[in-house]
Amino acid sequence: QVQVVESGGGLVQPGGSLRLSCAASGSIFSIYTMGWYRQAPGKQRELVATITNGGSTNYADSVKGRFTISRDNAKNTVYLQMNSLKPEDTAVYYCNADFSVPTYGSARVFDSWGQGTQVTVSS
């Protein structure tokens, strides 16, 4: 079983910064793409940023230039540095990881979601 756990959310004023972390643990053969998604009240979950195990990144237009995704493959951890935060960034942020397990090796890929961490941007 593979668990994904986020941390680092909280309350911040507009223009402030936060750093989210997400660690995957368990019986992991390999981790592939990891990403951050968010869901605001009354809205659908949306992609924020993803990063492959090779370091290629993808961002939502709304966060380009403000957010930076990075990862530490040795620690199975992905980070989201959020700068110049806006009230519209308020949401529950979820981490997702694509991974394989020793039983199947790279022949089968699974994905797991974290429980989410609240980010509130307000004065």
What's a concise summary of this model?
The protein is an all-beta fold. It has strands at 2-7, 10-12, 18-26, 30-39, 46-51, 57-59, 67-72, 77-82, 91-100, 110-113, 117-121. Strands 2, 4, 5, 6, 9, 10 and 11 form a seven-stranded mixed β-sheet that branches.
Primary descriptors:
mainly beta; four-stranded antiparallel sheet; 123 residues; elongated; 0% helix; seven-stranded mixed sheet; single chain
What does it look like?
The radius of gyration is 14 Å and the shape is elongated. Helix content is 0%, strand content 55%. By secondary structure, it is mainly beta. Strand 4 and strand 5 (46-51) form a beta hairpin. The protein starts with a strand and ends with a strand. It has no helices and eleven strands.
